[in-house]
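Still learning. Any example?
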Amino acid sequence: MLERALKLVSPCDRCGACLPVCPLFAAKDVESSAARGKNTLTRALAGGVVEPSAALLEAAGFCLLCRTCVDNCPNKVATDEAMVDVRQYLINHTGALNAKYRAVGSFLRSPTLVKLAAGGLALLRKTGLNRLVPYGSAPDEYTRTHFLTAFAGPAALGTPAVTAPKPIPAGAKVGYFYGCGMRMMFPSAAADTLKILGTVSQPILKENVCCGLPHLAHGLRETFLALAKENIRQFEAVDIVVSDCASCGGTLKHLASWFADDPEWKERAAAFSAKVLDLTEYLVQVGYTPRRRIEATLTYHDPCHLVRGQGITKPPRELLKATGTYVEMDAAALCCGGAGSFHMDYPAVSARIVTRKKESIERTGARIVATGCPGCLIQLSKAARASGGRFQAMHISQVI
């Protein structure tokens, strides 16, 4: 895997185009924060100039995996993919896997534990003890009753669809991928997703397991591959797999690449990845019409795993424009600083990044900022609280 990482970073010509766009370099002006520094470390490690160490693992771990550097690199160097390989290599050769990541990985591997945690968090929200996600509980009465209804206009029935629908097989079996973040943190948003899907299909619920991204990102690749195989099995009988979590969707769409050299799983993984769609991508394809008109200004934050991981920008905006008055924020695609566990591992740096996002949202004058990732929604909820109520953060399924 170190050989693969070296191959990935070899096209880096050290031009520095990654430096001004890297959120971490802006927050912490250190060369190793940006892609150029990380690529140099990878070359040094592969060339034997430096030895595997916990310090190198820390440097490789200090990365949002947001792909902003890739988008702005003249040679499109995939530093994010290289860092995943370097992390795995260093953990294999140093045994320095963080006990926290090991515990979280074991927890997320168990659907039963995830469901139990979801129930416990729901209870804490009802008692007001959980301040992490104040508007994530079902049925989310605060958001629904005191905020959305204040802006609800005439029903959108009879208005034209947001775009011309693209071909979806007649009678296609549509499966819903229930992500861990949605299940535990935003069950009401997941419930709204299912309601929406129910208006255009008969969604099929499977006992899917974690998408495996947390495991892949933190050196638990074998667990990631095992989870991937289970999800492939679960959804083999459906035609379309819809995800309302950008991180899950981005991971599932790229499973095929991880099994390209596996004769047993290559074709099955490719077939699975080909049928994964983001919620907004699917809704636009089938010509979904938003269920209400909201008399409020809306804006949108692009999740990294949607805008750069999947190349999806238009569908969510089309849906929001059909729902209310839409205003584009500046730097909408700038990472919010969540990035899985990054906001917990580096809270000070994450706070500086999300403050920039808060200021961008405030400049739009929007009352609602929508997004399609539970990790982003946690960050945007922090920004909403810091704004003193100037705006609220919601999953896009709660808005449309």
Observations:
- DSSP finds 23 helices and ten strands in the chain.
- Residues 4 and 307 are 25 Å apart (CA to CA).
